[in-house]
């Protein structure tokens, strides 16, 4: 009985760890995607601002 409970606890801990790693990976991917989008949009704003200043 003790071995069974210990095995279940180890399995549960592995599941929790796996879920945490998946959530972390998703969050990192989301942050990277957001930052890439900001970088892509940044030059457009700079060029528009420069064009407006020179007009």
Could you walk me through the main structural features you see in this protein, from its secondary elements to its overall organization?
This protein is mainly alpha-helical. It has one domain. 96% of the residues lie in helices and 0% in strands. The protein is built from 1 helix and no strands. It has one helix at 2-54.
Please supply descriptive tags for the structure shown above.
transport, ATPase_V1_Esu, proton-transporting ATPase activity, rotational mechanism, 1 helix, single chain, 55 residues, ion transport
Give me the secondary-structure topology.
Layout: H1 2-54
How many E strands? 0
- Provide the residue-averaged pLDDT: 88
The class by helix and strand makeup works out as: mainly alpha
Strand content: under 5%
| Sheet with the most strands, sense and barrel status | none
Oligomer: single chain
From the N-terminal CA to the C-terminal CA, the straight-line distance is 81 Å
SSE succession: H
User: Cα-atom Rg, whole angstroms?
Assistant: 24 Å
Total helical elements:
1
Keywords: Ion transport, Transport
Family: Belongs to the V-ATPase E subunit family.
GO molecular function: proton-transporting ATPase activity, rotational mechanism
Pfam family, one: vATP-synt_E
